[in-house]
């Protein structure tokens, strides 16, 4: 067990980043003043996970390194440009979380490497991030589809945009075309509608017992609209 290794625990602000130890539980994320101040979307994602009992044991490192396509925490972390710290006996390295996943339950971890922490840059001024999820019931349910979005405003226009899709591809995927489309434009319902349609086409869902490919694509559209709208409100606020 890794439970008693202090270096793998704790949430702290350091060098313009928030460091989250790999053994930090989902419940600790939810109750962290730092997370709620700077990364409320991550707290929202953690709050949608499973039950209180499971959230009190499940860790952020486990949620990420299990590489399950429907995991709740990676999309909002990728939208926040998080990196992950990997360590072995000989060395340590940092990797952008967006490059960490290779496929379902497959990561770039080498033999003997351990996920030690997640590093998230403090958001730029006028930045908002939102996480939206659809599940078949309110608790203890995996995401049928999820979307995290990030908007940074500058002089009334979208200076930077990121849309991340969860549970609709083998790995959490960046909707690159939709994200690029938003950059440089003044936010509006019409612009968000076009971006959501693009994200819908970029998703690569499958059909299974929780939803058909068609249903998941429709969810991408709806959840992208919701995520962009909430991200905009937070950026403006």
Compressed to H and E, one letter per element, the order equals EEHHHHHHEEEEEEEEEHHH
Global Rg: 17 Å
Category by helix and strand content = alpha+beta
Give the low-pLDDT segments: none
What's the β-strand tally? 11
Largest sheet: 5 strands, antiparallel
Kindly, what is the distance between the CA atoms of the first and last residues, rounded to a whole number of angstroms? 43 Å
Instruction: Determine the number of helices (DSSP H or I, runs of at least 4 residues).
Output: 9
Mass-distribution shape: globular
Strand order of the largest sheet: 1-2-7-3-4
* Average pLDDT rating: 96
Helix content: 25-40%
Which features characterize this protein?
single chain; 35% helix; 9 helices; 237 residues; alpha+beta; five-stranded antiparallel β-sheet; 26% strand; globular; 11 strands; four-stranded antiparallel β-sheet
Structural summary, described in words:
This protein has 237 residues and is α+β, with helices and mostly antiparallel strands. Helices cover 35% and strands 26% of the residues. Strands 1-2-7-3-4 form a five-stranded antiparallel β-sheet. Helix 7 packs antiparallel against helix 8 and helix 8 (189-202) packs antiparallel against helix 9. It is globular, with a radius of gyration of 17 Å. The mean pLDDT is 96.
